[in-house]
Design goal:
Keywords: Membrane, Transmembrane, Transmembrane helix. The chain has eleven helices and nine strands. The protein has 411 residues and is α/β, with parallel strands linked by helices.
Amino acid sequence: MSVLRKTLVVAVAIIAAGALMIVSFLAFSTWKSNVHQSNLAAFYATPEDFSQIPGTLLRWEPLGVDVADAKAYRLLYVTEDQQGKPAVAAGMAFIPDKEPDTPRPMVAYLEGTTGQGDACAPSRSPDPLHRVQNFLPEAMAQGWAVVAPDEYGVGTQGVQLYLIKEQEVRDTVNSIRALRSLPDALTGNDFAVYGYSQGGHSALWTGHLSKQFAPELDLVGVAAVAPAADLASIIDRQWDSVVGWGIGADVTRSWSIAYPDLPVDPFLTDAARDNFERIAESCTFGSFIEGTVRHDIFRQDFFADNPAENPMWAQALMEQTPPPYSAAVPIMLVQGTADQIVLAGPNANLQESWCAAGSTINALWLEGVDHINVAALAGPAVTGWIVDRFAGLTAPNTCSVPPPWSLITVE
């Protein structure tokens, strides 16, 4: 056998062994995940005759993880669907061990895009603290009660209405109500919201609609980190990128329900049309991996054309884009200049337009920080800002400082 042939045989053997290892790892991971989800299924099942009162706590149990000086719970509670009918949603709650001298303030932590499958629900994850670990220790030290809703249809019966304002706000305020029902919660009425990415969209709309859906609760401030806020700008800039695959399936599935007359199908490629239901059930990491392969290797787009240029889509996107706040509702806006998913340019425009409308904004721009890392780096600053909101201090306003346009790598 020639040296060249021996080399080729060895190379093929190495590649085959590597492929076998990857397949074996993925198969083991899938089996392990299936076992984990099967063990949780009974908790998340919709009760036959459950309360019709939004915010009712239906079930709770230990989350099964250690949080320093605190207890962690898995929750099942009553929310409402798009028609305002009672439905079931789940989430996590964290309560400090130390009893408070006064009623505890509450924080709703609103996660970014997860994917719509049951296994994508943060509270069903084998590592449920992954998304809150840069915020939770200080929140517990401050004595706050924290709730992190999964959202209706994620981990529970139903289909998530992704980036649909009423559903997001209903899920947020009803999770707060459920949190208050825990025996050791000992909460008052004051709460803040802290949202990241899609959760930032939820947080911004909670600032507008919380009193409509939960008049008994008092919102003290809204923190939005890399919020998916200006939806038309996001779609316009990202429709033919990998991001189209990463979130397009969730948008397609959800908005077809929320807007039955919206022309969705004509804007999908054949590849998207054949796969969006399956991809929507995937979790976000998997969606972006598949999207990267399809877009970068096979040159497949998710959208056949730009939906933002269609009048019906443009109207729907405008309806789901939060308008500026009054000066009475303070907001902290955090954005990385190198974000490739929720691009910095639209949120720089948001800062300028909201400031011009009289909003009270404390903007924090993180130079060179991308979408993944902004969540971790924002935690301490956001926590400090929320501390001051609960203390009743005057909210800072940085509207005199313009966005750092020269540092923004993608507008």
